[in-house]
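Could you show me just one protein sequence together with its fold in token form as a worked example?
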Amino acid sequence: MPQVIEAPSRTLPPATLTGIRWSVVQYENLFSMGLIEPGRYELLDGEIIPKMPIKTTHGFVQTVLLFLLARLFGQDFVMLPVSLQIGEHGLPEPDAVVTQEPRTTYLSQRFLTPEDVRVVIEVSDATLAADLTRKATIYARAKIAEYWVIDVVGRRLLIHGQPTDDGYDAVTQYDETDTATPLGVPSAPFAVRELLPPT
């Protein structure tokens, strides 16, 4: 049975990398100068965070997620993976987003912004704690209406809603045997097991 659970702590740790709070512009300059390798990092609230290598199960979930989101929201509204610019100091790279307009609308932009997205999704295996706390707070502060975390190891889906400056006020946990419903499309239920690797 789906259950509403208490949201984890919403405290954001301060940026620690040599005490610098990097901006998106500075972060991009590091890439252009060849000082950091593309695809290996993301920028969270001014801190450069190494990304985990993509395991086979993670890639599997990303693939089935693409098909599910296309079915629920329409294939023209799904992008993965993508960088999402949040203010001057944030460039997280969620595993997937559902856009407000058809994705071709955004081809002239360098990055999507929170105003461009309806749903943000993270596929979480080794990064579960950060996805449920730090990233949840970042996305909530950006007023992203719906945030999904697919817990691959725990075989569950957590759908976050009601964003505030302190985090999401509503978090519903769906186990693999449950049927989940997107907040923005209540008429489109789906089986959580569709998102998970077979056991």
About this structure: The helical segments are 24-32, 56-73, 128-132, 134-141. The longest helix spans residues 56-73. The longest strand covers residues 156-164.
